[in-house]
Amino acid sequence: MVDANRPKRVPLYDRLPQIYHVRDAEQDPPGQLQHYLAAVEAVFGDIHANIEALYHDFFIDTCDEWVIPYIGDRLGVSHLKGDARTLRADVAGTVAARQGKGTLGAIERLTHTLTGWGVHGVELRENLLWNQHLNHQRPDTGGAPPYGLPSLPRSTPNPFTPNRFTPIWGGTVTLRDPAMLSLVNTPFDPFGHPVDVKPPAPEGFDAVRYNLPNLAIFLWRLKDYRVAVSPPVIRDVIDNGAAGTGASFIVRVDVHPLGLPV
Description:
Layout (H helix, E strand, L loop, with lengths): L11 H4 L2 H8 L6 H25 L11 H8 L8 H16 L4 H12 L2 E6 L54 H4 L33 E6 L12 E7 L9 E6 L8
Antiparallel strand pairs: 1-2, 3-4
């Protein structure tokens, strides 16, 4: 597969110094060298195109269709039936998985492929508490911990700019942001935890053991969906005619689709 956008190769005659063009024009008949190189140009162009095609055949994204089974065989991919586009995508997925072997992204992708569920992986060592060496401190960005981070307003244009709601390495848990506190013991927990050396629990968040070699994979079996129409749930109907306030009845409703108080 040759890239059509690739610049056209310069002919051999055009690569010669200008002095040879002048001498060739002075010959009788003129252009003898140009005609000689033109005969060689076709063969040289075929060799050049073949070398370029062989280079593209090294990669699954640009190789010819007949090369796909050979690349798949070298990778140990099971032979699948289908058109060339399906086979190319299957082998390309295997190449991507091999290149990302051992990384968090590859584990998440493989888990999603096997289960079809939403997945989020967490390297638990990133959430461990640790003590700094006094002679080799690792300060936060902007100054010495824990007060080196600037206190910026929430409406900063960069959402990743640290502010008073940002968990600080070497600091304490902020109690000013209930939304951030709601992430404790969730897959998106940004806070530090002590080392847990107990054996894994069978299920639940208690199964998360924060330690150096541990990796947690969180799965969502259900997909989010939007409730288009949510009629209110009637709780009480009170006869208010005797009160003389203008309303004959007082109706108490819940707007939650399951009738839960909100």
